[in-house]
Amino acid sequence: MGDLVAALSLDGVGQGDLVGLMVTADGASAATMSGTEWAGPVADVAVADAEVRPRWTMWSQETARTLVGQGIRLATSWDIAAVHRLLFGGWRADPEYAWACLHGQPPDQVPVAAGAPDLFSVADDAPDAPALGAAAALEAASLQLASLTEQGGGNRISTARCESTAELLCAELSADGLPMNRAAAERLLAGITGPRPRGPADAAAIRAARDALVLRHAPTGAASDLRSPVQVKALLAAAGIDVRDTRAWRLEQFRESSPLVAALLEWRKAERIATTYGYSWLDEHLGADGRLRGAWTGSDGAAGRMTASSGLHNMPAVLRQAVLAEEGHAFVRADLGQIEPRVLAAVSGDGALAAATAADDMYLPVAAELGVDRPTAKVAMIAAMYGQTTGHGGVAARRMRAAYPVAMGYLDGADRSAQAGQDLRTYGGRRLRMSGGGNEAARGRYGRNAVVQGAAAELFKMWAVTVRARSAPLGARIVLCLHDELLLQVPAARAEEVAGLVSGCLAEASRRWAGRAGGAGSRVRFIADISVAGSWAEAKG
Description:
Shape: globular
Oligomer: single chain
Number of strands: 15
Strand order of the largest sheet: 3-2-1-4-5
Largest sheet: 5 strands, mixed
Radius of gyration: 26 Å
């Protein structure tokens, strides 16, 4: 049907204009707001992205994954699934469901499809649904845009664009993987869990040898199954240690005085690695190209944090020593500092708390304001955001009310609404569902933290996609997004340049994000610890 660039130009499509996009094994199809529909080779999409730079409208990250698999990385997008999760909350966002919700059907009345949705078929249960192709995607995006405009316009729309581009980044992270040196990883595993088993009998012998390091400190005749909490409690009792349960934090107080407890705590670390991050995990997820891969998504379906499978978000710190930059490259690691209290200052508009963010360590001015030491000030801040009302944290949090009444009022308001079962919205507009189960107090605690954690996730993703765009011309690639931390692999010769760029991107993203808050929120300072190193462990310091 002709050249895609020509078709877009003929319709007057310019940079940032919405264009519906579908990609299949046979090629691609596109639709414009004027009603023009195009079909042709996928390669035309790459050319149009470079020359026209529209905002490609797609049903989900699946389209981006398909394109990345063919070597095509789009600059921007409008991801209907990602925006749906902003508007409606929760995780489900298949095309039929998103379409039905946009057309007024109550979400709880939309049936779950029996199988994977066919985007070119009619969704029988969706109201007046056309074939859910590129034109329907464009219509859905237009309805989403209208809804976001009704909610508040610029802030909401900017968040939707950022969340959509974050899904492009997730597709790239899934394809690229995290550099990991197999030989280094196997050496670490051998030192922690023992050598690679040669078979079931060898595995049992290695496991028994690992257990023996603990049991040699046990009283004669004591119970010996270290994987049974009941028997571990009995073993400790036989050694004169009476505890309510065997949780690690409860046992820590006995580490110095009891060789048995010290050995048990170390055993648990090794056991977790052996069972979850052992040789089988390495074999399953580490490719022959030395890349550790998992599936990434831009939202967890709750407060909106990025997530990854394959243990990428929970990798034990010791294994980070095996995450090594490839030859000729280095890592640039950047970790946001004290992000949640700084975000609280921005979204609440508390002038006094915003003033504290001018310090590199904002807990110091907070401590001075509260008349306490720094550790107590940190406890007070965390207690305020997590709703702790008893103990040391609760006492400290009560002092916060006098010092920072605006911030505390913001958190208390979220707490009350959540307890009443009223859904919340983050600063960027993500719906946080509070009408489900759980007792009122638990909902309240979740609500007061989720409005901060969700806003922090929005800022982080705005920073990440800004880094993605600005660093690509320097040959840099983001290889990991871990909560508040970015890890990039870059050509070694450009590492310092990229490190400076990442810092500049934080300033740019925070101005765009916090600046919209106006007032005190626009004066909040965000900081990051940025380093260059050859391994993740070294960069993290």
